[in-house]
Write a structure and sequence with these properties.
Layout: H1 4-33, H2 36-42, H3 49-81, E1 82-83, H4 87-94, H5 102-113, H6 118-126, H7 139-162, H8 167-175, H9 180-208, H10 212-217, H11 224-233, H12 237-263, E2 278-279, H13 283-310, H14 330-337, H15 339-372, H16 378-390, H17 393-404, H18 422-444, H19 448-456, H20 461-489, H21 495-498, H22 506-517, H23 520-552
Parallel strand pairs: 1-2
Helix pairs in contact: 1-12, 1-15, 1-16, 1-17, 2-12, 3-7, 3-9, 5-13, 7-9, 8-9, 9-12, 11-12, 12-17, 13-23, 14-15, 15-16, 15-18, 15-20, 15-22, 16-18, 17-18, 18-20, 19-20, 20-23, 22-23
């Protein structure tokens, strides 16, 4: 444990940062958004646009929980229970959507399923139709994007829970004559209930905070996050703050429910080994499994392959055709050769780097306070450190606009809105939970007897931290750092409300190329660049996770 004096030296600045940049801006937005006349405008009637936005957000979120839950749970159980060629590779591919920036995933669906996308044009040509057979827009389009990007939470949560199932329970069920379906429904499913509840709450909260998919595909169907964006663009900050307040309250309630369910996790009473996967050998079973694998690969990889293909398209070469008429490498060459094209990349690297450095310093200090001190206020630090995860990106942007559009002591008497520094600050706030949680997990496995031995040898805490503690928890810090950097690099939701032309990041430039310039090839090339960086960082995180496990053992 950290000494009481050192604990206070860490606790005070950590709490001040959390109160000043997380809690205070939220309270400022609440104060602006809780005006009675504004709420009267929001809920003027059941047909009011904001009431419809609330209903659409809730309905799509509930549908996303159902769709993502069925797909993610089915995949997890299939990979857990059955063995087939390429199983490990397929399990890794199934987690792939987690590594995609939201904007890139939405862009992939636009290129593949949009009205001018490859699939509708292909069906139109195949069946000689006068128009495309379907238009990928509206609530169902947003729902499908959410299922694609959010089922992975059910998949990972359920897969982790299944690895703790005792094989003797399944064998006993089979001995009693139960079918596979009855065994799953009566034995396995009750054991998965905590994981399913946690995943459902998390998916609902993330879906409610979704912005990119509704912005591109919702068409005339309003959503709360898009309403926040529209009111801000129209200069009505009070209404924007009102919708932000409503959305924040909903998301915070679900975050508290997640924390509560995590504290009440239950496990089976048996402690035997997990059952080995069964080989798929039957004729029709094998054919069905192969068909399912093919459909899974198409569903997961075809959108990404489409983005890669379009990244080589020459500007203006893809309008009404099924595929681009001509291809070029100039989109990639311009990323580094053209100063105007490279500027968003450099901006994103700078701002993500600044935010990451701040998150590392702050996250390590906050984790030490939460895990390695006995101060009574550490519970408040833990809650405030995870709070940015529950605040949607659009709301964080509004919080910063409300707080920093006038000179304030938190900005050294400066106005931050409209400056370069507002985006790194937004990234820092949004990514606080990543480094803090990753470092906290590493510290929870750290043996305090090492610190005590170092102190017995006369070393001050500073020396103990640098020479003993830091080398052991470094894998956790590095994992959180990489996740923070790549997430900030592709951040779009807050950026679209806070950027100015001089500090426009990659994500905003992709949006501009897509919606204003109609330069699909360059927008796709930016997206591939992001995917490569995220892929490399994900591999590094997985490697560090392996190293971290070996250290903790």
């Amino acid at each position: 444990m950290v000494s009481r004096r050192t604990a206070w030296w860490l606790f005070v600045p950590v709490l001040l940062v959390l109160v000043g940049y997380v809690l205070y801006p939220s309270l400022r937005t609440f104060a602006l958004g809780l005006q009675l006349d504004t709420w009267a405008d929001v809920f003027s009637s059941w047909r009011a646009v904001n009431v419809r936005a609330l209903i659409n957000s809730v309905v799509v979120s509930l549908g996303s929980v159902a769709g993502a839950g069925m797909l993610g749970t089915a995949l997890a159980y299939f990979f857990f229970r059955y063995r087939m060629p390429g199983r490990r590779l397929l399990m890794a591919i199934a987690a792939f959507p987690l590594a995609l920036p939201p904007l890139v995933g939405v862009l992939a669906f636009f290129f593949l399923y949009g009205e001018s996308g490859i699939l509708p044009r292909s069906l139109q040509a195949l069946f000689n139709l006068s128009d495309v057979p379907f238009s990928f827009e509206g609530l169902w389009a947003v729902w499908l994007v959410h299922v694609y990007s959010l089922y992975v939470y059910f998949y990972l949560f359920v897969l982790a829970a299944l690895r703790g199932v005792d094989r003797s329970l399944l064998e006993a069920s089979a001995d009693l004559g139960a079918s596979s379906w009855m065994t799953f429904r009566r034995v396995v499913l009750p054991l998965l209930r905590p994981a399913l509840v946690s995943a459902a709450l998390l998916v609902f909260m993330i879906s409610m905070a979704s912005f990119t998919a509704p912005l591109l595909f919702a068409d005339t169907d309003p959503f709360l996050t898009v309403q926040i964006y529209n009111y801000k663009r129209n200069g009505d900050l009070a209404l924007s703050a009102t919708i932000s307040t409503l959305l924040t309250v909903i998301c915070v309630v679900f975050l508290l429910l997640i924390e509560w369910t995590n504290r009440r996790q239950i496990t089976g009473g048996a402690k035997g080994a997990a059952p080995p996967p069964l080989p798929v050998t039957g004729g029709w079973q094998r054919a069905l499994a192969i068909l399912g694998v093919v459909l899974l690969l198409l569903f997961l990889l075809l959108p990404i392959a489409t983005v890669l293909l379009i990244s080589f398209a020459q500007e203006g070469a893809w309008t009404y055709q099924i595929l681009p008429a001509s291809y070029t490498l100039s989109n990639y060459a311009a990323l580094l050769a053209d100063p105007d094209v490279f500027a968003p990349i450099w901006n994103s690297l700078q701002m993500a780097g600044l935010a990451t450095v701040g998150n590392v310093v702050f996250g390590v200090a906050a984790a030490l306070v939460v895990v390695k001190t006995t101060l009574r206020g550490r519970g408040l630090v833990r809650i405030l450190a995870v709070l940015p995860f529950a605040i949607p990106g659009t709301v964080i942007a509004i919080n910063l606009i409300v707080t920093f559009n006038t000179p304030t002591a938190l900005a050294a008497g400066q106005i931050l809105v409209g400056t370069f520094w507002i985006l790194p600050l937004a990234y820092f706030i949004r990514m606080i939970p990543l480094v803090t949680r990753a470092t906290s997990a590493a510290l929870e496995r750290y043996d305090d007897r090492l610190t005590e031995a170092s102190a017995d040898l006369g070393a001050p805490f500073r020396t103990t931290f640098w020479r003993v503690m830091l080398p052991i928890i470094t894998p956790g810090i590095v994992a959180g750092t990489l996740l923070t950097f790549v997430t900030a690099l592709g951040e779009f939701v807050s950026s679209i409300l806070l950027y100015v032309y001089g500090n426009r990041p990659i994500s905003v430039e992709v949006w501009a190329q897509l919606t204003r310039e109609f330069n699909f090839g360059e927008a796709a090339a930016y997206s591939v660049f992001l995917m490569i960086l995220i892929g490399l960082s994900t591999l590094a995180v997985r490697w560090m996770g392996v190293q971290d496990t070996s250290v903790s053992v």
